[in-house]
């Protein structure tokens, strides 16, 4: 829906702004496993981008997401289904994700999280 208005002789384009959740904008919601929710697949965070299976950009938290991919973080790459490098910028990433339970994120996630 586009609304046009004339203000003091200048034509302006007015568009309604509707806040959308990150997961509704295309970010894949992930949840770190807890005692009550076991992981669906395992990941290992690496600090070497060239050795990663996928590059992810974490767009933020999405605590209101209803359907999430539950991941289990491993200490070693050989025991993980997927090796992930966390990118500093979205254009570097293969996948944009958001975290539904950032309070439950393991220390290995925070160690791999890029500092801006």
TrEMBL record:
Protein name: Secreted protein
Signal peptide (UniProt feature, chain positions): 1-23
Natural source organism: Celeribacter baekdonensis B30
Sorted UniProt keywords: Signal
């Amino acid at each position: 829906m586009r609304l046009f208005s004339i203000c003091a002789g200048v034509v302006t384009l007015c568009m309604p702004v509707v806040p959308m959740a990150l997961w509704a904008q295309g970010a894949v919601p992930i949840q770190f496993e807890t005692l009550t929710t076991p992981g669906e697949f395992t990941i290992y965070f690496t600090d070497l981008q060239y050795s990663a299976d996928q590059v992810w950009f974490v767009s933020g938290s999405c605590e209101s997401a209803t359907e999430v991919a539950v991941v289990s973080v491993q200490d070693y790459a050989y025991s993980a289904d997927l090796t992930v490098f966390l990118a500093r910028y979205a254009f570097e990433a293969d996948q944009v994700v958001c975290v539904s339970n950032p309070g439950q994120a393991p220390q290995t996630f925070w160690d791999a999280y890029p500092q801006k």
